[in-house]
Records
---
Amino acid sequence: MSPPTPQAVMPLLPGIPAMGESLDVALSDLPPDTQLHSDPPSALFLDSVKNLGILQPIQLIRTSRGASPYIVAAGRRRIKAARATGMESIPAIVFPEGWVRPAVLAIAENEQRSTNDLSDLLAIESMRQEGFTDEQIRDSIGMGKPRFESIVVMQKLLPELRAALEQGKISIGLSRAIAPLPSAEQQKLLPALRAGSLDYKTYRKVYDEYQAAKKAAGGGTALPGVATTAPAATAATPPAASNPAPAPAPAPATWANTALPWQERAKLLLHEELRAIVPDTEADTLKLIAQLERLLDRALEA
């Protein structure tokens, strides 16, 4: 006998709309920062909160379970910033218990306001564990398949890297770049992670060495998230001369390669050109590039 469908318990979307209650909620009533998985607030964001306060209310759902009377659906970085700047309360929109899953509200709020891919990833994982299919999840929150896949790819991170992401030790953008690498290549990044020096330059060194090894083995090359085209068949070659000239290195995948589909060329152009001119220390700019990559995925889907 097949198990009951998740919808029999609680649908992804509420049957009727609900108006949230606008409140100032004491920060002491919310879960501690260690339970709020998100990138840490940047210095610029902290300055903004210090000077202007919290302009966008967080989203909470009442709960009768747990140490806190609220589940944080959206606004984890805002809560951290409010605490870091000495605030005692934070504006919030509070929804009734049982009205909607926190995971759905979290992603919907992120999509309407900005993005918090880690929050989205945790929410998607929660809904998957309840038995919902990826298609059901995407349809319920209005998220396109390219953006969805750009989030769930981070499930491929090794546990130590995943923990570092959730603790804010590595950024979303860097995590997304690392995730498609095989586990053996991710292992090579762990010493830098433990030393606190893992950055995009370190990743790129490991990635380039990995691609060079693939080329040497005839496996082709591709940037993470870009499909690898199978190498063309070559005719048999005569035996090598006693002192053959070194063969030229195969050209790497690049946006200028007209043999690639235009969608892949567009992604390569954004990745190669922008990453080449932005220093690894410019974390905020790299986050902006990651947002541009997501916008490109949406445009390609449309």
---
Amino acid sequence: MASLTPVIGPGPSEEELDSGLTPPGRTETISDGIFAIVITLLVLNLHVPGTAERQQAGGALQALLAQWPSYLSYLATFLSVAYMWVNHHALFTHVRLVDQKLQWVNLAILLGIGLTPFANALVAAALAGGLSSEAAKVATATYALIFMLATVPWILFWERLARRPELLCPPYTAAWARRERLRGALGVAIYTGGIGVACLSPLLAMGLFLFVALFYVVTARGFALAPHPEGRDA
């Protein structure tokens, strides 16, 4: 597997700087800030049961346990945002320079990340009203749709790097970027399927989302770098 240790490539030349290429530092910094804010917002959907809730549930413990849909949604969404951050960090250890198109694609990634607290709150509220309710099905299908849309920009990012492998740190190549693109495509396919699963069983769909999160956590380092004795390929 590719290492998470940053690969130090040659610095940008004056010609590259004049053409609008920049080091990825600022892009990664603002991204880390957005990820941190989003992860913080997720916990705001958890709340301490009030007096009326405790009385209705029959005690403090019962009131806390009754909020299990919020805990499940929080866990699934936290792990999903976490794997995106880990993969984002791993991605930028291989990026030497970014152009304007990559910056816009990265903003599209952040746009999707920014919607995840909404998806989390939507599912938690809907599941609390019944696992098989119409609201639960709509909420989990919307959750899958949001994460599917949030995964698409990752494919575009790798596609851009495959088209411009000079933006990668050596010895990473266009062929390697194309292989990494497949990981994003797999996520889009699973989340798209999750929309259908949600319409049948919202709880099963949440289990599927947890599986996707764990898959990307385990594979965060990406595919192994294949040897290319002749250097970069097109």
---
Amino acid sequence: MRWHEVISKFFGIIFLLALVLGFLLPGVFLPLSGITMYVLGVIITLSFLTLDYGEFFKTIKQFYIPLAVFVIYKLLLPAGLYFLFSLWQRNIGLAVLLLAATPVGMITPALAQITGGDRSFVLALVIITAFTAPFYLPLLLQLVGGAYIELNALSMMFSLSKLIFIPFAVSLVLRRFVSGFIKKTAPAHGALSVMLLVFVLLGIAAQGSAYIRENPAVSLSFLGASFVLAAVLAVLGYFGFRFLGRERRLGLTVAVTYMNLALAITLAAKYFTPDVMLFCIMYEVPGNLLPVVLRRLGRGKRKQML
């Protein structure tokens, strides 16, 4: 097994270890929090380099399905979950709103393939949510949670636009001039993204370390709530569109539960309270465990079918 295959297989464990290491050694890794946005930009560029737009346009022919999924799972569901979890605690509601509305993670097409889901369908959701995020995400956060947070929607819109459209432009230039090199190294892009994301998580965990140590009870309650959120999203993802078929439902479950967590945590650190950032960090645990569970379930189903 090659190095990038090992990293891709055990990415969840690697992410959790990075969070633990950043928490235990904040003095060492805190400087990394200052380069988070730049590292995210590189990760997103790598993701755009390997996206198959031909595959996307084939899937998008049935545009009403991805559009319905987008409206329900990225606009209506986050708002509904916000009001539901706000009954538990207001800051948890705000964190759930941010997480549920955050664009689908860039590595989810690969995760969908591993779990037995429909990769093309997930790819369509990745592209739709990525390119619309600079517009819908700040507006949704402002409209739904604006009464409880001081959010500059235009500032967030500008930050997200830079984070999405600059990497996209860079990827187009690289595709034009070094396409051969991109094709040759494409199998390792996912693993490289994982390793870059480790730097992001180390900095983020170090940034939240002091707050977690000072509030252990809050941290544990947030961890429990994050598992509840993951379970709710998984159930709604798999059973929300029962007519889609097993593969698409598995893919949708991955897409709904594995949002762009690094982006969510970065936005929480920049625009929200420490409680919101802490909850987003805690969601890393169930968020990275779920693909492993879904992979086992997908394999089990395939064996039953055989």
